Every structure is written in C-alpha cells, then in structure tokens.
Amino acid sequence: MNSDELYRQIASITDQIGEQNSAIERIGDQLSTKESELTNFDLTSAERNRIEGEITSLKQEKNNRIMAKERLEQQRNQLEAVVDEVDGENLCYSLVNNHKQ
C-alpha cells in the first residue's frame, strides 16, 4: 500500500470522525432539551416516564457514538504511523538511489 492510498484512508476516517462529532453534538443538544422538559411540573407520570426513557436512549446513543469515534481515532493513528514508516522508507530509498547516481 502506498502513502497516497493511506492518506486517502486517513482523510476518509477524519471525515467519519467529523460526522461522529456532529452527531454527538446534536445528541447533546437533544439531551439538554429533554432534560429541560423534565423541569416542567405539569407533566403527567406517563409523560415524565416517556421523557426519561428518551433521555436514557439518547445517552446510550451518545456513548455509542463516542466509542465509535474513539475507534476511528485509533484507526487513524495506526494509519498515520504506517504512513510515517512508508514515507521514511521511501525517503531512504530515494536518498540511496540519488547517492548511487
């Protein structure tokens, strides 16, 4: 695998991380809205239970997104390490060939 392919993969993963960050932010906004709804004293028990269930689901989704983002970041870090290695080998190869000429 050459460094151009690796850079494309890194760019794709970086885009996916950005998408996860946006989703995490949206979910955070939704959580804030739902939590503020719970402060309404006029809620029935059923409404309160429904909102609490939605909050639980949103928190779970947010945690899943955070874990997915962390996995993507690990993949990106691994690919960046491979790129550094490949680029280093290419530089050494280039220097050796230039020296022979």
Explain what this protein looks like in three dimensions:
The protein has 101 residues and is mainly alpha-helical. The protein has two helices and no strands. It has helices at 3-37, 45-100. Helix 1 (3-37) packs antiparallel against helix 2 (45-100). The mean pLDDT is 89.
Radius of gyration: 23 Å
Note the main sheet.
Answer: none
Mean pLDDT rating: 89
Give the beta-strand count: 0
Give helix % range: over 70%
Q: What fraction of the residues are assigned to beta strands by DSSP?
A: under 5%
In short:
The chain has 101 residues and is an all-alpha fold. 90% of the residues lie in helices and 0% in strands. It is rod-shaped, with a radius of gyration of 23 Å.
Keyphrases for this structure?
single chain; 101 residues; mainly alpha; 2 helices
Q: Layout of SSEs?
A:
Elements: H1 3-37, H2 45-100
Helix pairs in contact: 1-2
